Amino acid sequence: MTSRGPGKRVRKAPAERRHEIVATAARVGLTEGLECVTLRRVADELGVRPGLVGHYFPAADALVAEAFTGATMAELDGLLPEPPAEGDGPTPAGVLRRFFTLISGTEFDDVSRLWLNARHLSRYRPVLREHVVAQELLWCRRFAGVITDGTAAGEFSCPNPWAAAARVLVAIDGASTYINTSAEHRAEPIATMPRTVAEAELGLPAGALGPG
Amino acid sequence: MTSRGPGKRVRKAPAERRHEIVATAARVGLTEGLECVTLRRVADELGVRPGLVGHYFPAADALVAEAFTGATMAELDGLLPEPPAEGDGPTPAGVLRRFFTLISGTEFDDVSRLWLNARHLSRYRPVLREHVVAQELLWCRRFAGVITDGTAAGEFSCPNPWAAAARVLVAIDGASTYINTSAEHRAEPIATMPRTVAEAELGLPAGALGPG
DNA sequence: TGATTTATTGGTCACGTACTCAATAACATT
DNA sequence: AATGTTATTGAGTACGTGACCAATAAATCA
Fold first, then answer.
1. Structural domain containing residue A160
2. Is A12 a domain residue?
3. Cα–Cα distances in Å, from A147 out to A141, B155, B183?
């Protein structure tokens, strides 16, 4: 990809270089796993010497953590966009319908793998752990916000949006847990569960958040 | 632990040695993580040279996979014992009550970590992957068996035990996914969910599978 | 234009891993 | 008691990792 002859130096503004390092690390982490996010791997990807990446990230843990946050933050904004400050965005039910449609696609598989990856790796890497906790709470907060909006608009009936969001996320994360193993063996009962749980939590009839 | 002077050799029957290697690997994997299951680590634990472990497991992947199966198999038998061939064991509802009580305890945390660990690692290690798939299906089958028994006995009402078991396991695995990260931040809504899902799936009133 | 800062290079270091293989010693068999 | 089998050792290779540091060249500033 990015290759140039040896010795030829390209000097960039620190902010720009740092940003492209994190972006590359996020891409590697998302597609190949966070343990592939190493100084050498990212450097190769950028056509740069490992020492340079080490210069921006003296501790490799920080790079892995930022890679995770970068990838999941982008994904969250794609799945559950923050509602516009004022005026009329899409209806909460519409937002959720779109959300459940998107996470059913195979494009979401890499994201499932990334979360699984990060949650396990957090056992050993405290810096990553903090980032994962922050993202988990952010996703929950974002989802709870949609529920709150929908309840205010009379679309949903939900006494405790935060707890309901947490439970829907349990279903989503539980269903995506098998992504590397027996997912296809039990596809049918598993895949439909998150949407069903959401409908139950929001007091909606079965199928209300379904496609079409 | 097991230490003896250098050079002193203890020669054991292959079956016995192999068994103690797997048992040690299972213990290390359960308490410290499957990436700590290395030839050297297991050898140190046994007071033996790394080459010996390598002799029994020419590929380290196989050792990790067997360590996982050993640990989860023991756990399953502790949580959901296979019913006696004939005669009267405990009632299915009683079995499930006991099950949900046990997985609520902190002793189950290591098991949660192990599953998370194994499911991620399966991404890279095909041998482990097969073992994890087998265990996932076994747990599901075992759970479905209890549901089937309870339905036959008139305790439960469940049209599809296999699918119901799969969904309850989604709730359990989803709830335990946060064990290394934000588990304690959202303990309340998350911890109660598996039992609630089970009660709904089995047509039981809320709290029917609760403690006491 | 000359001086200064610093982004970038290139190399080294110690560590831990799996894997290989010849030599050895404990056991079993005759 | 001698022999054969093999479980076990000990040393070695090759690889990938994070961390460290002096030298260098590109950009900026005086």
1. 61-201
2. no
3. 10, 36, 22
**Residues whose CB is less than 8 angstroms from the CB of residue B173 and which lie 6 or more positions away in sequence, other chains included:** A174, A177, A178, B115
The domain tally of chain B equals: 1
Report residue A183 CA to chain centroid gap.
19
Residue A52 belongs to some domain of the structure: no
Q: Helices H, strands E: what count in chain A? A: 10, 0
pLDDT in tens, B125-134: 999 999 999 9
Angle between helices A193-201 and A161-176 (to 10 degrees): 170
**Binning pLDDT at 50, 70 and 90, where does residue B6 land?**
low
Distance between CA A83 and CA B165 in Å, rounded? 37
How close is the nearest chain B Cα to the Cα of A79, in Å?
A: 20
B111, part of any domain: yes
Measured from the Cβ of residue A62, the count of other Cβ atoms closer than 10 Å reads 15
Q: How far apart are CA B106 and CA A23, in angstroms?
A: 38
CB contact set of B18 (below 8 Å; sequence gap of 6+): B56
**Nearest 5°: phi and psi at B85?**
-50, -45
Tens digits of per-residue pLDDT, B38-60? 999 999 999 999 999 999 999 99
Between CA B59 and CA A76 the distance in angstroms is: 40
Half-sphere exposure of A4 (CA within 13 A, CB side): 9
Please indicate if any CB of chain B lies within 8 Å of the CB of A206. Answer: no
- CATH for B95: 1.10.357
The reply to whether B90 falls in a domain is yes
CATH number at residue A180: 1.10.357.10
- The integer distance in angstroms from the CA atom of B14 to the C1' atom of D28 is 71
CA distance A199 to chain B (A): 14
Q: Does A113 touch chain B if contact means CB atoms closer than 8 Å?
A: yes
Residues of chain A positioned with their CB less than 8 A from the CB of B174: 169-175, 177
Residue A12 CA and nucleotide C3 C1' are separated, in Å, by 21
Do residues A61 and A173 touch, judged by C-beta distance below 8 A? no
Which positions on chain C have an atom < 7 Å from some protein CB?
6-11, 16-22, 25-27
